[in-house]
Design goal:
The complex is a heterodimer. Chain A has 17 helices and 24 strands. By secondary structure, chain A is an alpha/beta fold. Helices cover 78% and strands 0% of the residues of chain B. Chain B has 16 helices and no strands. Classes of the chains: A alpha/beta, B mainly alpha. Chain A: GO terms for molecular function: ATP binding; ATP hydrolysis activity.
Chain lengths: 509, 348
């Protein structure tokens, strides 16, 4: 058996915390090998050890059979290991080629030989089917293209082993398919790939083998052809996981949110929401599907009063709420799980307890005549922490110290507890692992079953398909189609999201 | 948690110790005896009743200036304009003290309130510009310092005196001076201001930690976006923070005008108290109690330094160097934190 990389019994300890506990990962030449684990399971730590950013406290690394000491990323580069980071490391104002050669510029007589570099980049791009324009500025190309630039960067440096860190998190469904083709082309050319992910579907689709880790421990390596998503999920989480969220047919009531001809401009003054119409009824979940940047953010911020809208109408239970202040809108009965939980959802430097009364602190019993009642605040916090299973040492711990999933549970607890008629959930499960996702989906459906209206915005089609009762497809600031999740496919949604008109019958809006 | 708190206390303490050691090294290099120098400093600050009185008198405006800086800082704003707010507060207090003749129970509070209002107004302008036009408060407050200095000088020359260099003495009914405190401290210039500054520290703590207003101010200070999302009026809170901060600074000016000097004179340059307030707030960890301790240290250094040239031949400039070194070590507290944690680890 020929392995290009062997990480044997790797151990990495931070203080008292064992991040990697004797994990073994063996990568065959020419395979796509998934590294699967929940957030915080130790995937990134393991890969940072391989890439030379951390030194292991135990175990050994072999590259092509030879024991090596990867002291820093330069050593990793020399060994042919390249990493495609989740957060791109590109200079926006430079061209593709300039970014790729950064740090190892070819020179001719003291000047950068940009033409030679461009030629090489073009050749590499064509060889692996990347279709990248070497002369384009990074700022002008899409996120998917920027990722390909990152891939090219590693190839240009002669990498044979590529580590992809959650590469699909930022991509649209179509871009994901293209990336999968690129990865397959790479292994055909003899490269080997480690794919860090917690998305089971991608593993099933593209990987040959998968190594599962859980809470720092290696659970095992399986052949993908001999396993299934359910098995992988329970290996990853350590218990049974339900994918299809169980739900009863909706009991749809009266309209709660009615949006008519809404026009919203974004920060640059460009029309982001363009005469949009949408109705959400009591007892249903409406999912908004769309590629990022088609007006979803502006739509939600306009409904919740975070930004002003130009014209149109937003009614909640028949009452006009357009361009009221966030507080007035909150008090009318809108709950909002914001897209960016660190920016909008929490004051990270406040204790989790004080975060639980972020919208209600001025009301009794949390305060009286301007004086805060900390007993009432922390009683409420303890109750919500219990009910929503927020894992925190105590209610006085700063929100910053909690994991993403627990921060999100805290926000959902706070929003649901105010008992709003309309709950807006913007990407409520972004970056969370399957256990937390399952929990959050259950809570959203619970709200629906209590007769609340739920508006869900997500870039994850799985989530939209799974949770929504109706799907509204948004494209260039308009709702272009409303479809029944039971009667549509991801392909059809993907096309609608890309702006193509719906041909089949059944369009209802 | 408690370990964290311990580090928070240890860091400034270590910073002060390091500053003192570095100061000693500077003294040795320049050919002075550091032990004699520091003995003189200590004697000059706490050596007898008179010096203690003088130290407490100097601590008074430092506490208020530190509170002013810290209050704005806790709301996410850098109020570099404490100096200017202090100057207009001083001017307003003395003007009320000179212009009216009222019973003490009315006159003294009125003068202090006038100082607070003047400082608050001086804070309102940068707050408003920040909230309305997003003009950075650091630039505006620095400029407001100069405006305060020269406006105050112009008013003293043309309104409070006849082209003179200082105003008349305030009426006794507006004075903070106390014969009782003076007799207690061997006729130092100690006045009742220290009580006002201690009350102000309690007010700041209570306002920030216990009220809904403080909750909003802190929330806005940490995260404007989340505060906006939560329905708070971010702009109103920015203005309010600068107004309250300015009021503290204005009262600091009243301490000088109604207590220490009992008049106001034309200034060639800044008093420095407002800028020292930045260091006091930093050393005190922007916390009311910490600020009192930091102000005591700064007051003691400032007053004790006066004794150094005569008793130990050490120039006062050296004291300024020591103060600067202490601030340097506080600002680089990260380094001290690092050493402390490593020390703890090895101790285990």
């Amino acid at each position: 058996m020929e392995y290009v990389i062997e990480m044997l019994n790797i151990r990495k300890v931070f203080g008292n915390f064992v991040a990697n506990d004797n994990i073994t990962l063996q990568l065959k030449k020419g395979e796509i090998h998934a590294l699967l684990g929940e957030n915080g399971a130790g995937k990134s730590t393991l890969m940072n050890v391989l890439f030379g950013l951390y030194q292991p406290d135990g175990g050994e690394i072999r590259v092509k059979g030879k024991k090596v000491n990867i002291a820093n990323p330069n050593v990793a580069n020399d060994l042919g290991i390249g990493m495609v980071h989740q957060h791109f490391m590109l200079v926006d104002t430079f061209t593709v080629t300039e970014n790729i050669i950064l740090g190892s510029e070819p020179t001719k007589g003291g000047q950068i030989d940009i033409e030679k570099a461009e030629k090489e980049v073009r050749e590499l791009s064509e060889r692996y089917g990347l279709a990248v324009d070497p002369k384009a500025k990074i700022a002008d190309i899409s996120v998917g293209m920027q990722q390909r630039v990152e891939i090219l960067k590693t190839l240009y440096r002669g990498a044979d082993i590529l580590i992809f860190d959650e590469p699909t998190a930022v991509l649209t469904p179509q871009e994901i398919q293209e990336l999968i083709q690129i990865m397959k082309a790479l292994v055909r050319e003899g490269k080997s790939i480690i794919l860090i992910t917690h998305k089971l579907k991608e593993i099933m689709e593209v990987c040959d083998r998968v190594t599962v880790i859980r809470r720092g421990k290696g659970i095992g390596t399986l052949n993908v052809s001999e396993t299934n998503p359910n098995e992988l999920a329970s290996l990853m989480v350590g218990r049974e996981v339900h994918f299809k969220t169980e739900k009863q047919p909706p009991k749809v009531g009266k309209p709660v949110l009615e949006i008519e001809n809404l026009v919203v401009k974004d920060a640059r003054g460009i029309t982001a929401v363009d005469h949009l119409n949408l109705t959400v009824h009591a007892g249903e979940i409406v999912g908004i599907a769309g590629v990022d940047g088609n007006g979803q953010t502006e739509l939600i911020e306009a409904i919740t009063g975070l930004i002003k809208s130009e014209s149109g109408s937003i009614r909640l239970n028949g009452k006009e709420i357009r361009n009221l202040t966030p507080r007035q809108i909150t008090e009318t009965g809108v709950g909002h799980i914001p897209q960016d939980r660190h920016k909008h959802g929490l004051v990270l430097d406040f204790p989790i307890g004080e975060n639980m009364v972020l919208q209600t602190y001025y009301k009794e019993p949390y305060s009286k005549r301007g004086i805060l009642n900390f007993k009432a605040i922390y009683d409420k916090a303890r109750q919500l922490i219990r009910e929503f299973d927020v894992r925190t040492p105590d209610e006085y711990t700063k929100a910053r110290a909690l994991s993403g999933g627990n921060q999100q549970k805290a926000i959902i607890g706070r929003e649901v507890d105010r008992d709003p008629d309309l709950l807006i959930a913007a990407q409520p499960t972004r970056g969370l692992d399957v256990g937390a996702i399952e929990f959050i989906h259950k809570r959203l459906i619970e709200q629906r079953d209590k007769g609340k209206a739920v508006l869900l915005v997500s870039f994850e089609l799985d989530e939209i398909m799974n949770v929504s009762d109706r799907i509204a497809v948004i494209y260039e600031g308009k709702i272009v189609a409303i479809v029944d999740p039971k009667e549509t496919t991801e392909q059809e949604l993907g096309l609608l999201m890309a702006g193509s008109k719906r041909k089949e019958a059944g369009v209802s809006s | 948690m408690s370990e964290n708190r311990l580090t928070n206390i240890l860091v400034p303490v270590f910073a002060v110790i390091l500053g003192i050691i570095a100061g000693a090294i500077v003294m040795i290099i320049s050919g002075y005896d550091p032990i004699a120098g520091y003995s003189a400093l200590l004697y000059g600050a706490f050596g007898d009743r008179y010096y203690i009185g003088e130290t407490i008198r100097q601590v008074t405006p430092y506490i208020l200036a530190g509170l002013a800086v810290a209050f704005a800082f806790r709301t996410g704003l850098f109020n570099i304009g404490v100096e200017g707010q202090l100057i207009v507060g001083w001017l307003a207090a003395v003007w009320v003290g000179v212009a009216f003749e009222l019973p003490k129970v009315i006159h003294l509070p009125l003068a202090i309130i006038a100082a607070a209002v003047a400082g608050a107004l001086w804070g309102f302008i940068p707050g408003f510009l920040k909230a309305r036009f997003r003009v950075h408060e650091v630039i505006v407050t620095i400029m407001m310092n100069y405006i305060a200095l020269y406006v105050s000088n112009a008013v003293i020359r043309s309104v409070l005196s006849d082209q003179g260099f200082k105003s008349e003495k305030i009426h006794p009914s507006a004075s903070l001076r106390s014969e009782f405190l003076q007799s207690l401290t061997d006729y130092s210039t100690l006045h009742y201001g220290i009580i006002i500054s201690l009350i102000a520290a309690v007010v700041m703590w209570f306002l920030l930690e216990k009220t809904t207003t403080g909750y909003e101010l802190r929330a806005v200070g940490f995260n404007q976006h989340a505060s906006h999302y939560a329905g708070m009026n971010v702009n109103r809170n920015i203005i309010l923070a600068m107004v309250i901060s300015g009021a503290f600074a204005g009262i600091a000016g009243a301490m000088e005008g109604l207590g220490t000097f009992e008049n106001v004179s034309v200034k060639a340059g800044f008093t420095g108290v407002g800028f020292d307030g930045i260091a006091v707030a930093l050393l005190g960890g922007n916390n009311a109690f910490g600020i009192i301790l930091a102000a005591v240290l700064f007051g003691a250094l400032k007053v004790g330094a006066l004794e150094m040239p005569s008793a130990a031949d050490v120039p006062t400039e050296l004291v300024d160097i020591v103060i600067a070194l202490i601030i340097f070590f506080v600002a680089s507290s990260y380094l001290i934190r690092l050493v402390l944690t490593r020390f703890k680890k090895e101790g285990k």
